[in-house]
Amino acid sequence: MGESKGIFSGIRSGLAAGLLAFAAIAGAAPAGATPIRVVIFNFCGDVGYLHAAVSSGTARLKTMLENPAGAVNLTGAVIPKDGFTVDIVGPAAGGNGTTTDGHALITALATHDVLILNSNTALGNLFSTGDKQTLLTWISKHGVVALHGAADSHKVWPSWDSLTGGLFTTHDVAIATVVADSVPGNVNDAGFQAINKGVEKTASFNEEWYSYQSTPRIQTGVHILTTLDEKTFTPSSRMGDHPFSWYRESPSGGRFYYTGAGHMQELFVNNPWFRRQVYNAIVWAAGTPSVSIREESRPAAGPANARANGSAITVSFSDPGPHGVEILSLDGSRVAAAKGSGAQTHSFSGLGSNAVYLVVTTAGKHRSGNLIKTR
Predict the structure, then answer these.
(1) Structure letter (DSSP) for residue 199
(2) Phi-psi bin for 338: left (phi > 0), alpha (psi -120 to 50), beta?
(3) Which is higher by pLDDT, 265 or 7?
(4) Are 211 and 171 in contact, with CB atoms under 8 Å apart?
(5) What is the Cα–Cα distance from 93 to 284, expressed in whole angstroms?
(6) 16-291, what's its fold?
(7) What is the residue extent of each domain of the chain?
(8) Phi, psi (5° rounding) for residue 105?
């Protein structure tokens, strides 16, 4: 069987207990936790360049997903209601990270929702014809987050190059600036807003900057997220319009995200632009309902408004009649509770700083919950 071509043309464990507790209070009856199941492919082809950030970056991504509420630079991020599970195919740390056979990934796909490709150079050399078809079929209905070297297939897999939208040609190490795309057709799209939520509109940092054979912007269905400002460094291969991260969706539900960033190990550790956009892309790629975690809730319709004030949480009720409020930790344990009637404000002090709580309010038949992060 030949490969499918042009398939893109034309949540889910660390937070499970606390949020399932809210689901029970609110009257929902979930059958069980359904975390976003992530698999990270930690190999590259034995003829490809092995990035140091394959193993170290994978470990950082796993830590970030397993504890997103406590991760650095994720304030205000969207967190899946049941968290994540993270499996790694390939050496979790150390080892040479190369292989001639990627079949282990193919067998893992059936039990996962999102595939992260962490600079898997020479990807086209790792799969049989049948495994390539299986992978492309899976991608057409699931989520992929591809980083940096994933666009360097060694030009032996045309279908993959078509899917990614950009084929690596040259690179330059320098401090340069990325800028959020400003084309209205991109900016107004729901995917653009979800993946760029909380991401700086401009960011300058040291990286190995990729240039591509042609601009991904001309590819059918590609939405550009950020571009590389070529005026801020001297690329050996100028593109003019230089997209640097983008996404596309397939008619059958697949979601594909790519960023040229990910060469430098420090980006996985403390670069807010990179960490936040990649994190957002993982949640977006899963395509599942999620809840928002924020430092301070916004006023909204309903009987109560909860907000953080330092290490305290204040909940204000405006509607008449009896009400109640519970503060739950993310393991589902009750931290504090109060009852009252009518317009009233309850303040819960002495809470942990920089911690996340589930605030459940009840007034009449109306029940709601917010994740609130203290400061």
Answers:
(1) -
(2) beta
(3) 265
(4) yes
(5) 27
(6) Rossmann fold (3.40.50)
(7) 16-291, 295-373
(8) -70, -40
Tell me the per-residue pLDDT of 306-354, one tens digit each, with 9 for 90 and over.
888 888 999 988 878 888 898 987 666 788 999 998 889 999 998 988 7
Report pLDDT digits (tens) over 26-54: 333 233 458 899 999 887 766 666 666 77
CA dist 135 and 99 (Å) reads 17
What does the pLDDT read at residue 65? 92
Asked whether the beta carbons of 85 and 38 are under 8 A apart, the reply is yes
Give per-residue burial for 204-241: e unless 16+ CB within 10 Å, then b.
Answer: ebebbbbbbeebbbebebbbbbbbbebebbebeeebee
Q: State residue 53 phi and psi, 5-degree precision.
A: -80, 0
Q: Is there a contact between 340 and 321 (Cβ–Cβ < 8 Å)?
A: no
* Secondary structure (3-state) at 135: helix
CATH T-level topology, domain 295-373:
Immunoglobulin-like (2.60.40)
